[in-house]
Amino acid sequence: MASQTLEDLYQEEIADLISANIQMQTLVTRMASKVHDPKVKQLLTNSVDAIGKHTDTLRGMHQSDRQTECRAMAGLVEEAKRHAVDADLPAQLRDVAVLAHYQRMSHYGVAGFGTAAAYARVLGHTNDAAKLSEIVSNIYRADEISSQRAESVERAVSKS
Known about the structure:
This protein is an all-alpha fold. The chain has helices at 6-34, 38-61, 71-85, 91-123, 126-159.
């Protein structure tokens, strides 16, 4: 069904984010089992829990039975599997690759949640807008931590 209103676009964005989160949560769980660095493992494990909470929040906003598949996240997941999770890499290099792909997926989430928050504000869904904006802030904090972890792991790789 084609979008006819901003509310339609908003609901489509929420459905897309639900699908993206489910896909990302599944992959990040797998990523966590593959990484070597305990701090990277903890970051990913914490992220799995946060993604689940974000998905529950989205489900509370979704007013349709319509399901969708986020093909953009499917592509990011496929790339992460090929170049990080399933790649034949030494442990520390795998950690670097995993973090890079984790950040790519997270940045997609920032764009989607930010868009949904903007739609919610315009539509007067102030409670939804506040929740979505908080999720964007959570993702930014996780991104800062993952950047720090990546720099640390990259330094360790370059020394070996």
